[in-house]
């Protein structure tokens, strides 16, 4: 199964229309259908992986265990993540500890948003991994 087929399968399993995936990711209508080779440019593959909450490696290799997906985040988890994200945003934008910089240059708002997006995906993923690791039977999503 190539990457395009896998993306379509994941969307079908999660009841996500392909058109919504394309719209939410900022792609043109019919973009995924037009990829006949079954390969995405790397930047778009990352966008799709973040949207579907899977790793890029899974979309490419199809070998990642889907067990992590069995441990759904509840409202409390989402509130905790939102609180953490707000604290991180305040620290990055307040400049009370000095300006946020990378490689000697100040980070602008657009770059801060990119960093925060990556951190949020990471926190959600870690929350699921921790649920599985520390209390797998209590937190398993009942089907």
Automatic annotation (TrEMBL):
Give yes or no: UniProt keyword DNA-binding: yes
Q: Which InterPro entries match?
A: Cro/C1-type_HTH, Lambda_DNA-bd_dom_sf
- Entry keyword DNA-binding: yes
| Signal peptide coordinates | none
Q: Which GO terms describe its molecular function?
A: DNA binding
Q: What are the HTH cro/C1-type domain coordinates in residue numbering?
A: 7-59
Q: Which UniProt keywords apply?
A: DNA-binding
Superkingdom of this protein's organism: Bacteria
In terms of Pfam families, this protein maps to:
HTH_26 (PF13443)
Q: Tell me what this protein is called.
A: Cro/C1-type HTH DNA-binding domain-containing protein
Starting at the broadest rank, the lineage of the source organism is: Bacteria, Bacillati, Bacillota, Clostridia, Lachnospirales
